[in-house]
Amino acid sequence: MTFRALPLVTIGISLALAACNTTQPQATAEPAPVATDAYRNAPAGVTPQGFALPSGTGCQGDIARWSAIQDNDLKTGHVSKGVYDRIQGEINEARAACTAGNSAQASALVRASRARHGYPG
Q1: Would 88 be classed as within a structural domain?
Q2: Enclosing domain of residue 119
Q3: Which of 26, 55, 98, 120 is deepest in the core (most CB within 10 A)?
Q4: Within 13 Å and on the Cβ side, how many CA atoms surround 84?
């Protein structure tokens, strides 16, 4: 190696080392959704005491329970807002089928949504 190349090598090494010390922007979690009083007093990620799934039969009951689970999961931080919104679209599709009198189809849409998002049937 010649003495003329030495400064270039030194500069290259210095730049490489400086790059290692550069701070990268840190990823931040989505802000927690605004909690109701019951959720505000519960520990983070915990469903508040007294939470109960809605009763009901047929497609209306299926939709009410799936919707309540999703509301709870959003408020406790177990599902992101983006996934929640996607599931709400699926719930609305099931609700439309139920309202149109297609109870079997609506319940099947709820079951499919639950399975697609990893919830037990």
Answers
A1: yes
A2: 60-121
A3: 98
A4: 18
pLDDT of residue 9: 56
In this prediction, residue 33 carries a pLDDT of 46
Radius of gyration of the chain from Cα atoms?
A: 26
Q: Could you list the mean pLDDT of each consecutive 10-residue stretch along the chain, which spans 121 residues?
A: 54 54 45 59 83 93 97 94 97 97 97 95 78
Look at residue 120 and tell me if it is in a domain. yes
Q: d(Cα 61, Cα 53) in Å, to the nearest integer?
A: 10
The first and second tokens of residue 120, run together, are 């037990």
71 domain residue, yes or no: yes
Long-range (24+ apart) CB contacts under 8 A made by 100-109 are: 102/59, 103/58, 103/59, 104/59, 106/59, 106/62, 106/63, 107/58, 107/59, 107/62
The whole-number pLDDT of residue 64 equals 97
Residue 83 lies in a domain: yes
Please report the pLDDT score of residue 28 as a whole number.
42
Exposure of 110 by Cβ count < 10 A (0-12 exposed, 13-18 middle, 19+ buried)? buried
